[in-house]
Design goal:
alpha+beta, 7 helices, globular
Length: 267
Amino acid sequence: MKFKRSELLKIQRAAVKVSEEAGALLMGYYRKRLHVREKAKSSLVTQADLESEALIRTRLEKLFPAFQFLGEESGEVGSHQKRVPTWHVDPLDGTTNFVHGFPMFCVSIGLAVGDEPVLGVIHIPTVGETFAAAKGCGATLNGHRIHVSKRKTLGESLLTTGFAYSRDVRQLKPAIRSFQAAHLEARAVRRPGAAAIDLAYVAAGVFDGFWERNLSSWDVCAGAVLVREAGGKVTNYAGGSFYMSEREILATNGAIHPAMKKILKGA
């Protein structure tokens, strides 16, 4: 299915409104007493996650009943067909940050057709920033156009990454090696703990590059569109085509992409 530009922009406006409504809901819980449970080791969920996803799903299903929905907390809703537009939603990316009162968390709403992201909205309620992009329509921050950075070397670059929640040293070793290699060459490396924010800030030129493995579609769908529409490059670690199902992503301003591929070689 292909969308017209006007259709995508209409969907984008609706997604922005829904993301900001969900963000307001999250702020009602922020730094307050929460009921927290572990889905898996070190992977948390709160009533804020659940209520945010329920709100987003209800609003989007009412506005776009023909679309499918895939959320972090609920999984697939209804029967799933590959070529039907599907929402990929993280209602609270950065739950651990949220639980501990660290303000780096967001609402991430992406739309994809099959494995191709076509629209993305990321709202960071603590700082009042809403990023939006649609295929062929450019990327914006609070309605103003944004572009990736123009830095050309790793030595002047600020990078960001994340590690999977794992206590398995064998799984962590490749991530630690790539972090060390990047740290030795880049100006600095950060790990804020929310992949959607990492990608949004690559799109805005704050970060120059981001890489991570073992991410789900709701972590990267929206951000991948943002980076591409801001003029950046999104691939797998080897520089090949990016597919959400591969669960790895390298996103940069484009200029440092070859250098980052070398950093990640063998990771």
